[in-house]
Amino acid sequence: MEHSLGTLLPLYSVIPFVGMLLSIALGPVLFPKLWHHHFGKVSAAWAALLAVPLIVVYGKQGVDELLHLLIADYIPFIVLIGSLFTVGGGILVRTSLKGTTWVNAGFLTIGAIVASWMGTTGAAMLLIRPFLRVNKDRKYKAFMVVFFIFMVANVGGALTPLGDPPLFLGFLHGVPFFWTLRLITPMAVVLAGLLLIYIAFDKYYLAKEQKEGGLALASFYGDGAAAQDLSGAGSAPGKKLEILGAQNFILLAVIIGVILFSGYVKMSEVSILGVHLGWQDVIRNLVLVVIMVISMKITPRAVREENEYSWGPILEILYLFFGIFVTMAPALAILKAGESGALSFITAAVKEPAQYFWIAGALSSFLDNAPTYLTFFSTALGQFYPGMAEAPAVAQFLADQPLYLLAISAGSVFFGAVTYIGNAPNFMVRSIAEESGVKMPSFFGYMVYSFCILLPLFGVVTWLFFL
């Protein structure tokens, strides 16, 4: 894909993207009913406000940019998210566990561990519904979902290319599959910090619930002494675990396999509306669609009904991320243009690992973290090995400057938790939680959590690993 468009676009071309973000942030707060019924139209309007002038002013170049973004990025994104959502929604986890502090901490820990191996989206879709069910009688639940987004939907995906899209892009560009295991120490620091903070939050809200009498603890457990059990390890009886729809685990394994296939196998290209895709990518997308259909066919309807499965969350992703992907096209193109683009002051200022961590991370909080990762990966290669072909440059980069790639990788993955749009499962988890009756924080309300909790932890990570 040519990057010359990024050298031509003015900085004000990012205004529709800012408008899209503000609509997502303020629409549900200021105009909740209007937003609920018309958010798809708002998304389409912002997309049109960007697309029409782009095509009118830049002609074929503008058309090519938008088609590439939609065909090569948006459609695979939706297909992958949709397949994981469908398969995860077909797995029903029944348990008589109750939402004690330690049970919830266990859910978050297990979710964070498996996220690197089945993807943050896969882990989030598998566990968010049972997580909400074990806490159905808790009064204050929004903070739990926020920590679930932090740990399971983002930070836990840092160890392998299966965990998060930026790392998969690095794998496609020559970073060995298990190289990202080096992120285990900074990831462990962030997860340990989050877990300790979560336990403090949970104990505080449990004490508040008990003081307010908002939790019918005795009937909840059938035990008059249950009030004490919730704040400790608990002695709730019947910790039985039952999994229905387990055949979907096979489909989940197929999803992981076909993603690896598309990364390892290089086939000839096919042109779709002028956008060149490898056949391995086309095959991956088709297989993922087939998996969605198979999952719907082989999963009993009763399982999905008990799982409270609906198409609402994925439709919200479909509509809103269409607007996000289209309107962010100028911002990404300008960034890719590096020192020749209107954001050259950003790429020119990035020289040290800590700067890569924070700037790649900050942009990943609002832009798609996969191309943002690739932009700064390319910036670092150009900084150390200008003019060298990519394959030998990557090999030399990994040997001589591994700290830089660790910083870019950690920033792109960790900072996805800073906003609802930083990583796709964030939005989906929020939507599922709201469908279950949890009143989630607004766009900016969520950022109060992330700024106060995540940014200090990222400061510790910077001090320990990237200075």
TrEMBL record:
Keyword Membrane annotated: yes
The keyword Membrane belongs to this UniProt entry's keyword annotation: yes
TM segment ranges: 12-31, 43-59, 71-93, 105-128, 140-159, 179-201, 249-265, 317-335, 403-422, 443-466
UniProt keyword annotations, A-Z: Membrane, Transmembrane, Transmembrane helix
Protein name, per record: Transporter, UIT6 family
Organism: Desulfitobacterium chlororespirans DSM 11544
